[in-house]
Amino acid sequence: MRIMVDRYGGRRTVLTVLTTVAILAGGAFLRLHGINQYGLNSDEAVYAGQAAGLAGFTQYSRLFGLFRAHPLLIQLLVSFVYRVTGVSGLTAREVCAGFGVALILVIGIAGLVLWGRLAALIGMLFVAVSPYPIAVSRQMLLDGPESLFVAVSVLFLCLYARRSRRELLWAAAFAGGLAFLAKESAILLVPAVLVFLILSPDTLPRYRDLAIAAGIYVLTILPYPLAELSAGKASTGADYLVWQVLRPANHPLDFYLGVLGAVGWAIVALAAVGALVGFFRRTPIDILLLSVTLVIFGFLELWPTKGYEYLLPLMASLTLLAVSGALQLGRALALGFQRSSQSRRLLGTWASASLAVIAVATMFLTASPVVSAQRGTATLVGTDSGQPAVARVTVLAGSGGLLAGRPAGLWVKAHILAGSVFLTIGPSFANILEFYSQDRALALSVSPNPLHRNPSYSPVVNADRLIRSGAVQYLVYDAYSAARTHHFADRVLALAKKFHGVLVYQYDQESSSGRGSALVRIYGVQP
Amino acid sequence: MRRVVAALCLGLLTAGLSVPAATLVSAATLAPLPPPRPSLAGPVAIDKPAAEKIKHIFVIVQEGHSFDNYFGTYPGVLGINRHTAVPANPRSVTAGAVYPHQLTAVRTIPLDNSLRAAEAALDGGTMDGFVSAQSAAARNGALSLGYYNSTTIPYYWALARQYVLADHFFASALGGSTPNYQFLVAGKTWNATPGAEANVPTIFNRLDAAGVSWGYYAANYQSHVASGQQLSLESQIPLLGLSDITGTSSDLARIQDITRLNRDLVDGGLPAVSYVVRPGQSEHAPGNVALGQTSTVGLIDAIERSRYWKSSAIFLTWSDWGGWYDGVAPPRIDSEGDGFRVPALIISPFARRGVVLHQTADFSSILQFIESVYGLRPLTTRDQNAPSLAAAFDFGQGRPSRPVVMGVLPAAALTQGSVPVILLVYGLPVVVIVAFLAYSALRSGAERRRRIGEPS
C-alpha cells in the first residue's frame, strides 16, 4: 500500500513537472511568437535607447537622456545584454519577455506554498495565457519586470504571513525595493503592506525587524535619487512628479475596466469570488492579497494618468485571488455532490481544474483581438491637395508597437544623411524615429510651458525659424500623432506647404482594396 | 673732417639716386598689363581620375569677405598674426596703426569694395592702404581690420576642418563683385552696361557644345520677370547681360530660383554643373553673416544628404573682398587681376580631409577644373594657364568619404550621468543587501538546527 502511494506520488510529481514545463513553454511561446512583428513604440524606444546609452553606444546617449521619469534597473540589465548582442529592439523585448515567463514561475511557486500543486498549476496557467500580461511582457516596458519583483515580494510576504520569519519580511522588502528600481510606481506596495500589517496584527513583526525591513527597502531604492544626484540633477524626480500630478487626465475613469477585460473576465470573476471568500475568511494571506489588490488599484484609479500597462503589478495578487476563488468554488461544488471526504477532495480538485480550464477557454475567445490589437487599426481619411488632412487612428498607449514607426526610422537611417534633424507632430513618433534612425527629432506639440510638458522634451518655440535657419531639414507627419492632435498635425502640413516640402518617404497601410492610406509621410524642407 | 664731408656727399648721392631708381622699379612693377585674351588652345586634357569620380560640380558663391576676414586666424594658414598692423595713413607715420580685432556682431556697416578702394588698399603692392582707402570713402577705416572666427562662423570653420581650405585663393579681378561674377563664368570681364547685351563666350557655351547639362541658381530669382528687370541680381547673374543666353530660351530656362535646386536634389534631374550665387541671405555687409552662413551651409547639407553627394565636388567661395583687409598681395597676372584673397572651400567625398591648400589659384582654376573634367576648350588665357586644384583631391581613396552634416541645432539638453557611477550606485546596495539576507538566513537556519538539537 505504501509503495503504491509513493508510486502515485511520483507520478503526480512527474505530471506536475511536465505540466509546469508545458505551461512555461506555452507562456514563453505566447510571449515570443511574432514578438518582432512591429517595431518599438515610444516608451519602448526610450527605454531601449537609455539601455543602449548605458551600454556605451554614444549615438543613443546623445538622444536619450538617462534621467527621465523612471529608475534605471531594467535599462541597466538590458544594457548588459546590449554589450554582448549590440542594440536592437528585439533583444530588449526578449529580455522583458523573459521577465514575463519568470512571473509565471513565481506565481506557480506562490500557489504551491499557499495551496498546493493544483493551485500552482492553475495560477501558472492563468498568467501564462491571460492576454494582458502577454501583451505587456512582449514589450520593452518596465512594468513587466516591476510586476515580477512585486510578485516575488508578495510571495515572500505570503511566506512571512505563514511562518512569521523575519528574514522573509526582509526579503520581501528587498524584492519590493527592486520593484521600485524597475519602476517607481511600485512604491504603492508600501502602503499596501502597511495596511496588511495593520489589519493583521498577528503578523506584526517586532519593531526592530520592521525597522530593518524599512532600512533594507530604503537602501534598495536609494540608487534612484543617488544616481540623479551624481549627475547633478537632483530636481529631475521632482520635475516629473510635478508633471505627473499636474498633467491633465489622459483617460476616463472607466479606463481600467477595459484593461480588466484584457486580463480575462473569467479570471476577474474568479478573483472576485476569491476576494469575497477572503473578505469573510480574513486569514493573513487573504488580508495580504486584498490589501495589495485594493490599495494599488484604488490609487491607480484615482491617479489622473492612466496607462494600459499600469495594472500589471496587480497580476500576482489578482491571480492568487482567482486561484483561491477557483479552489473555493471547486470545493463548494464538490460539497453538494459527495459525502465522503476523500471523494469530495477528489471531486473538488477536478471541479477546480475544470473551472480553470473553462476560464482559460473563455480567455482564448477574447485573446486574439487583444494580442493583435495593432493590426488594421490605423486609417487616414480625407485629403487636401494630396496631403492627408484627418486621421482616424486608435492606438492604445502601451498596448504594442507601431506599424509604421520602425520602417520609417530604418528608411531614414539608410537614406537620409546622419545628423539630419526632423520635426514631428508629437514626441511619441519622435522617440521612435530617434531610436531607429539615431537622428535628432523634435516634436511640435511639446508645450513651451514647463508645467504642461514632459520634462524630457524640449519645446519647439518657433518651428518656422528652425526651418528658416536650416536647423530642421525634414517634417514628419504620422497618422498616430495626428489622431491625437489635429491642431499640430495641421501645423506640420502647413509648414510642409509653406516651405515647399518635398515628399521623400511615405509608408502606406496595407488594405484589402489594394490602395492603402498613408501612415507616415516625411517631407524634405529647405530654408 | 674730410671723412665727414665725404660721408655726407655719399649719403646725398645715394639718396639722390635711390628716388629715381625706386620710381623706375615701381613703374616697371605697375606697368600696364594686357587683359586676358581669348584662348586659342584646344580642349583641355581630361583629368581621368576626376572625370571618373566627379559627375556633379557645384560652384557656390557668397559675397563680400576677404580670406583674412573669415579665416585669418584659422590654424595653419597664411593669415593675420600679432605683428599684423595697417597704418591709418600710409603717408603719415604719425597717424598710428590699426590692428586686427575680432568682430562679434553678425552685421556691420558696409565697406567700400570698389576698384578704386581696392587699388588704394593695394597701395602698389604694399597692402597698407586698407584703412585709408575706407576712410577716403567716408567709411569706418578701422573696421576693415575686423575679423571673424569660429565663434561667429562656426560652420564654415567646421567645413574647413573637414575638407580643404585654400589659403592662396584669389578673386580673379581687383575690385567688387560684378567683374568677379563675370570671371567665374567667362574667365574675363566685360563692360556690363545696363540694358545692353554683350556677346562673350562662357563656360556654359562650352558645356552646351559638349552636351553637358548645367544650371544657374540664385535666391529670389523670378523667372517670369524680364532679364533686364532683375534689379538686384544682374551683378550675380552676368548671364542676364549676354545675348546668346538671353536669346536662347532653353539656356534662359536654366537660370532658376534656388528652390528649384533644392527640389532637384531630392527629385532628381540635377544638372552636371550647377552655379549657385548668393544661396539665400547675402553675407555682404550689411548682410547678416550668421544667416548667410546658415543658408549656405544648409545648401551644402542638402547636397550632402542627396543621392548626388557620392559624385560631387563643391567649390564654395566668395565673390570679392568686401572692403575687408587681407595681408597677401595678389599676383599681377593681367590688367584685371588677381584681386585680393577670398576664402575658398573645396568640399567633396574625394576632397582631402582637413587640409589647408597653399596652392595659388583663383576663380579661373574652378573653370579649369570644369574644363578638365569634361574636356572642354579653355575660354581665355586665364583659365588656360590657371593652376590646377587637383591637389585638393585624393581620387585614389577606395570609396567616397562620408559627408559631415554641420547640424545647426544646439545639442539636446539631456540629463546624463556617468555610467560607471550609475553601475556602482545601483550595484553596491544590491550586493550589500543580498549578502546581509544570505547571512541572516544562514544564521537563522543554524539557530533553528541548534534549537532542534537541544534536549527539551
Q: Rg of chain B from C-alpha positions?
A: 31 Å
Lateral arrangement of strands in the main beta sheet of chain A: 4-3-5-7-6
Return the structural class of chain B.
Answer: alpha/beta
The radius of gyration of chain A is 25 Å
Please report the distance between the alpha carbons of the first and last residues of chain B.
138 Å
Helix percent band of chain B: 25-40%
Secondary-structure element order of chain A, as H and E? HHHHHHHHHHHHHHHHHHEEHEHEHEHHEE
What's the average pLDDT of chain A?
83
Shape of chain A: elongated
**What's the total count of β strands of chain B?**
14
Of all chain pairs, the largest interface belongs to: A-B, 55 and 49 residues
Mean pLDDT of chain B: 84
Stretches with pLDDT under 50, minimum 5 residues of chain B: 17-29, 408-413
The percentage helix of chain A is: 55-70%
Q: Which class do the helix and strand fractions of chain A yield?
A: alpha/beta
| Biggest β-sheet description of chain B | 8 strands, mixed
Question: Overview of this structure, please?
Answer:
The complex is a heterodimer of chains A (527) and B (456). By secondary structure, chain A is of the alpha/beta class. In chain A, 64% of the residues lie in helices and 8% in strands. Chain A has helices at residues 2-32, 42-54, 58-61, 73-85, 89-115, 117-129, 131-137, 143-163, 166-182, 189-199, 207-221, 223-230, 236-246, 255-263, 265-281, 284-302, 315-337, 341-371, 405-415, 427-437, 463-468, 479-484, 486-498; strands spanning 378-384, 387-393, 421-424, 440-443, 474-478, 502-508, 518-524. Chain A has a five-stranded mixed sheet, sandwiched between helices. A two-stranded antiparallel sheet of chain A has the order 1-2. Chain B has 15 helices and 14 strands. The N and C termini of chain B lie far apart (138 Å). Helix content of chain B is 37%, strand content 11%. Chain B has 456 residues and is of the alpha/beta class. Mean pLDDT of chain B is 84; it is low at 17-29 and 408-413. In chain B, helix 4 runs antiparallel to helix 5 (130-136). Classes of the chains: A alpha/beta (527), B alpha/beta (456).
